[in-house]
């Protein structure tokens, strides 16, 4: 069969597979017209006439042959097809509605779009890439090539190819001995290549293929405008040049509920900074007060959406909305938070952080607005992260509320758990993994649950740490056993802080207790990292969204600093900020930071310090809407270790290899 005929057949195959009967008739009519044209040509085109006749016969019989079998390097076959019709312009159409549940633009110029969907055992991808050469997709431990599980595929002469590979360094990834990716379809047009493929969440090849869990995953991507001549070696996939990058994605994020924005009962309210000049220092917390809409009856907040000014994504790190106590005198204006009298506005109403897309409440839950018990004023706190001290950056970012008079069954609330933001939270250098822990004891939870008269149900969480954080998790402890997790990410990325929905929802009952742990990696640091607001300092928090609302707002803790510094032989500190040593006499007058930093740190020493801190007492801040109740001197040693749940809800449990 001639090359021209093969092209006709491939085109007809796409139409046959993805069009209705009327569309198939159009292809047949087009081929008939082409046959008439060929008949009028010179007899030397007899072979081409025969090809056209063969193609027409195959279509009339309802089958396709050439171009239908797609071979991967592992011998898998699939159907050459696509995610939707390709417009004449060559720009790809959106995939069929309801097919893929998630998508992400992997590069800033929208040249590489990844779509995916998943079930309990497998994940299906479709890569739509602006190239007619090969495309690469990898799952990386850290955003680089080395140690990455890589997939490379292309379409050449109507045939689609897909290869499973492993990257040992910054050179051509070698073919895996076990090809564990299933090619489902592939095609290209004048501008794009599209490959659809499937793989297990928990691979059979555990040495060179990475497991896909609910953790943040560093995806690496690449493409080249030339198809490989061979599967590997000198004629295999060539260097991609600048057509490459990485992006952190939560692949197994459950889809948020849908909200009908065409519903006339859904109203929006925007809170934004007004042409604010971002200060030229690393960290700024800017507070602006807003009066919420005056409502004549109860409404429910049902969606929160970030409004980040385009171009300012690099400096707007997170935005929190704090509700002011009903009846209190609200602050006014817009100024740095340190100088704003916003002490009556400490309960969190909404939260967004870098990389997040906002969130929609479940259909049976909403955050109450418009009643006497609800706030009339809020304070929007914007964290600007400007380590380069950029000048002349003006910002209009903020938050959009979607609310409705159609009140839902339950009122939602937000409970903050974790480590109090304080310099007593100290993380040593040279730690491969240093775990800090915070406790929310039943002595804090139970009185509020008893007042409510029923358990609360957690439906979402937002994990929060800073630059050296590599893992965040909140454990629900029941009867001395870790019952489940209220959010968990063992591959945390500071630049992707998304609200994550829990399916199923998790109930917190009387007698339950919570442990929030953060893992930090400081092997590239030579000095301590302390708790604080700046991105170069550290936090460890989880914002739990739940229903029905009760009166507890914060349940967090902090280790006793005097116990921690006993590790260095210190027995007494003064009250200065930062503290200085009083005893022993040999260290008297020394800044505590200097003492900690001059210690000979190593991975082993960091482990010893972690165990020392975790064996000591904690102070729990138990803050409800009625005020503080500090629980002092509770010893955390009894918590560690605890039995884990039989099935860890945040990880895949796929078997069958």
Automatic annotation (TrEMBL):
Residues 1-23 form the signal peptide. Residues 110-224 form the DOMON domain. Belongs to the copper type II ascorbate-dependent monooxygenase family. InterPro entries: Cu2_ascorb_mOase-like_C, Cu2_ascorb_mOase_N, Cu2_ascorb_mOase_N_sf, Cu2_monoox_C, DBH-like, DOH_DOMON, DOMON_domain, PHM/PNGase_F_dom_sf. PROSITE patterns: DOMON. Its cofactor is Cu(2+). Residues 66-88 are annotated as: Disordered. It comes from the Eukaryota. CDD domains: DOMON_DOH (cd09631). One of its GO terms (molecular function) is dopamine beta-monooxygenase activity. The keyword Disulfide bond applies. PANTHER family: DOPAMINE BETA HYDROXYLASE RELATED, MOXD1 HOMOLOG 1. This is DOMON domain-containing protein. The keyword Signal applies.
